[in-house]
Amino acid sequence: MSFSKIARKRYAICFGIILSLTCHALITRADTVKTTFPAASAINLTEYAGQVVYVDFWASWCVPCRYSFPWMNEMYRKYKTKGLVILAVSIDEKAASIEEFVRRYPAVFPIYHDPEAQMAQNYDLPGMPSSFIYDHTGKLVKKHHGFRKKDGAQLESLFKKLLAQRSH
Prior knowledge:
Blueprint: H1 5-31, E1 52-58, H2 65-79, E2 84-90, H3 95-104, E3 111-113, H4 118-123, E4 130-134, E5 140-145, H5 149-166
Parallel strand pairs: 1-2, 2-3
Antiparallel strand pairs: 1-4, 4-5
Helix pairs in contact: 2-5
C-alpha cells in the first residue's frame, strides 16, 4: 500500500507540528531551570521537626550524582506527602555549574548552594555524593556515601521504616 501525494503531504504536516510542539516543550522545560539557589547556610534542620530529612551533598562533576538525582526525584514524589524532605546541597563553586547539571538532570526537590563548602566541612564529607538521614525527632540515623542502583532500594526501605515510625 503506498501513500498518495495528499496523504504524504498530510503526514509531513502532522509530523512537522508534532516535532515543533516537542521542541517547544523541551525548550520551555530548559528555560524553567532555576538560576539562583539559596545558600546552604539557610538550611535549618529544626524547621523540619516531625519529618524525615534526607540531606544530600553533591557536585556537578560527580558521576554517581547523575544516578542519584532521578532516584531522589522519585523518592520525593512518592513520599513528600508522607513526611519526607529532601535537601540537596551543591558544593560547586559556581552556580552556572549547578544550572548546567540541573538542565540535564532536573530536580523536583530544593537545591542549596555551598560554594565555600562551609556546611560540607561541618559534615566531614568523605566523597560525593554523601547523604545524611534524620528521623522525625532530628536524630541522625544514617550516613551514606556514594550512590549505586542497589543503594536506592536500601535507602527507600529505610525511608519507609522511618516514615512509619513518624506516624506512631
